[in-house]
Amino acid sequence: MKDLKLIGSMLFAIIVLLNVTNCQSRHDTKDAVKNSHLLLKKEDAVRFKHELESLNNTNKVAVHISDSARIVYATEQEVLKLENGIVLFGWPSCPWLRNAIEPLLEFAEEEKLAIYYLNIHDIRDLKEKDKEGKVVTTKAGSPGYEAILNKFHAVLNPYNGLGIDSIKRISSPTVLFIEKGKGVHKVVSTVVSQTDPKIKLDSTQRQELKQRYREYFENEHISEEDIKN
Q: 2-34 vs 203-218: helix axis angle to the nearest 10?
């Protein structure tokens, strides 16, 4: 009986140790996703600020970007090679991105993390259905964009308007969380309550959007359902 109790105690201790180890490993991975120790370039922040603020006079959504925004310009190949990180896909004139960018950068500053940025305006493909209902490509995406679609296929949203879940497209803005080379979580657009991107988010909506970004760090496990939504 004593032997059985001893074995039981040993098994329990092993289970506890494994759980602690897994939790620590998970924490370390999420820490790596932040890239907090990355040497940020001042010129990236200045360039990003100029690209967005220069449109304030012609865009209904005026934005104000910090000179120290935690932005890192990335190429398609750099996104493909990224082991751990957070990538923002979009372009400066997109009204949805312009609504999202201030809450996103506030979140980045609060968490001391880096946001990799890839402008996808000119590299995306264009698809539509012909009269017979067949999907045709009217503009091919760049090789790098297509490679990104393939690599992160499982986590990305379907191409709007086609009605075929297996055909994916990157919407603007999409904030993709990459963990060990895989897309594990994403935030697309802003918040459900925003229906008109020409009307800027109010303070409550901004906080809600920041919380959407923060959910990845607060949830211990990202489910398949989280990846799809």
A: 130
Cα torsion through 23, 26, 32, 34, rounded to 10 = -90
Is residue 173 within 8 Å of residue 94, measured between CB atoms?
yes
Tell me how far apart the alpha carbons of residues 122 and 187 are, in angstroms, rounded to a whole number. Answer: 21
Closest CA to 98 of 214, 215, 217, 209: 209
Which phi and psi (to 5°) does residue 90 adopt? 165, -160
Other beta carbons within 10 Å of 229? 10
pLDDT tens, residue order, the chain (229 aa): 555 555 555 455 444 444 444 445 767 889 999 999 899 999 999 999 999 999 999 999 999 999 999 999 999 999 999 999 999 999 999 999 999 999 999 999 999 999 999 999 999 999 999 999 899 999 999 999 999 999 999 999 999 999 999 999 999 999 999 999 999 999 999 999 999 999 999 999 999 999 999 999 988 644 444 444 3
**Under 8 Å between Cβ of 156 and 148:** no
